[in-house]
Amino acid sequence: MSEKLWGGRFAKSTDEMINDFQASIGFDKRLYREDIAGSLAHAAMLAACGIISREDEEKIAAGLKAILRDIEEGRFSFDVALEDIHMNIEKRLTDAIGEAGGRLHTARSRNDQVALDMHLYVRREVAAVAEHILDLQRALAGTAAKYRDVIMPGYTHLQRAQPILLAHHLLAYFAMLGRDFDRFAGVWQRADIMPLGAGALAGTTFPIDREFVARRLHFERIYGNSLDAVSDRDYILEFLAAASILMVHLSRLSEEIILWCTREFSFIELDDAHCTGSSMMPQKKNPDVSELVRGKTGRVVGHLMAMLTAVKGLPLAYNKDLQEDKEGLFDAIDTVKFSLAVYARLLRGMKVNREIMRRAVDEDFSNATDLADYLAKKGLPFREAHAVAGRAVQYCIERQKWLKDLTTEEFRALSPLFADDIREAISPEACVKNRNSLGGTSNAQVDRQLEAAEALIESGAKLVADWESRLPEIG
User: Fold this and answer.
1) Does residue 309 lie within any of the structural domains?
2) What kind and span of H or E run contains 162?
């Protein structure tokens, strides 16, 4: 006969290799706090509904809290033969308090139990990831404010395009992270649904009170369909999708950081504490953090693809395939939080070589658009102005000059509309200052962006604080 808690109808024990293959305790043990919180709420509900006695509930609660202390103090031995975190805790509880422990699983299944654990866990980790996003946004905004007057080349096709403020460039990543924050806020909403009470798939014959459990665990909503409750993994897919987009944003930033700290660019220098050297080449200073974040992006995107593939052909309701929702999610969470944390530290330690950035915009043709705009503002159709500016660039290339080096006479030979003010009009400062359209790179617009960034961080912090206040306390 099987020794499993579910083994009543089995005549044989589970093959040891099968045990190892199907066991999830090696990774789902991190759900212990959620599992205990869910069981405490479930036991309280069973007692409130008269399904178990108050005496049994008190024994269950005391036993679960003792198990929590044992786990957190390293005194709990997890057993692969018991398969998962739920059975490990239940077995220890029953061994400790006897019959009362055996009554805990009344009116629930591991199917709705694990669903509850995952909803609780994802809510907690959404709040943690959101905290890290806000900290990286603070680092970006702080660096932008510190270097708010630094002018650099803006690029398209990785070719110099127009002068911009470095602060404007950094705040573009702030905006990306703002959308990432909003996506995780959506994940919170989809995770904030209580599945317990769905049973294995069809509900339960016991007179339970699902609203009681939802209130106890601070859930806003309850699943209205028991099949959906135990099979829904949309919130995990959404978490992985949001995490993948976030990592793509960090990967794009990484690529720029890697380029900027090359000798060829020399726009920035990373802190020695955030780089490594070479075992062979003494001169090397490698941007390992950025390279690793860029590399780990593929890992997180891979977890999204794996999860999408795992659920794409599953019939209702629960299937063992859904056990595969955890390892990839757990790894993605760890990767995202670590990547955000190290990037905030890297940006705060980064030094900007403002003189080299300034030289870059002095010695290029990124002011050619402003040359064309100058003529267009004097009445020349923009397409004709564009052609004149193009000829001016070609003229300079042939003579190894920059636009700022041309005399008024040389400009007037290209168009009689040019006057003595042309060199001031195409200076990097003017190129930046005059792009004062909403969201542009002008100093005034960047100041507005910095003010908006401060307000967004403040409102985001309030939202995260609200989420955290709704995470169940079990200690």
Assistant:
1) yes
2) strand 159-165
Q: How many separate domains does the chain show? A: 3
Residue 9 has pLDDT above 70, yes or no: no
Which residue matches tokens 């003494």?
A: 282
Q: Which residue has the tokens 């900290």?
A: 135
pLDDT tens digits, 344-382: 999 999 999 999 999 999 999 999 999 999 999 999 999
Query: Which is catalytic among the residues 157, 279, 437, 469?
Result: 157
Angle value at C-alpha 449, between 446 and 453, nearest 5 degrees? 140
278 is catalytic: yes
CA 50, CA 28: separation in Å to the nearest integer? 32
The three-class DSSP label of residue 154 is strand
Domain presence at residue 437: no
Three-state secondary structure call for residue 367: coil
Instruction: For residue 276, list its beta bridge partners.
Output: 286
DSSP state of 403: G
List of E strands, 173-313 = 193-194, 221-222, 268-269
pLDDT, tens digit, 9 for 90 and up, residues 42-94: 999 999 999 999 999 999 999 999 999 999 999 999 999 999 999 999 999 99
Respond yes or no: is residue 24 known to be catalytic: no
Q: Are residues 383 and 323 in the same domain?
A: no
Q: Who's near 239: CB < 8 A, 6+ residues apart? A: 122, 125, 126, 184, 187, 191, 329, 332, 333
Residue 10: pLDDT over 80: no
Report the range of poorest mean pLDDT among 130-139, 234-243, 304-313, 318-327. Answer: 318-327
Does residue 233 sit in the same domain as residue 85? no
Catalytic residue among 2, 119, 168, 278: 278
Cα Rg of the chain (Å, integer): 30
What is the CATH number for 411? 1.10.40.30
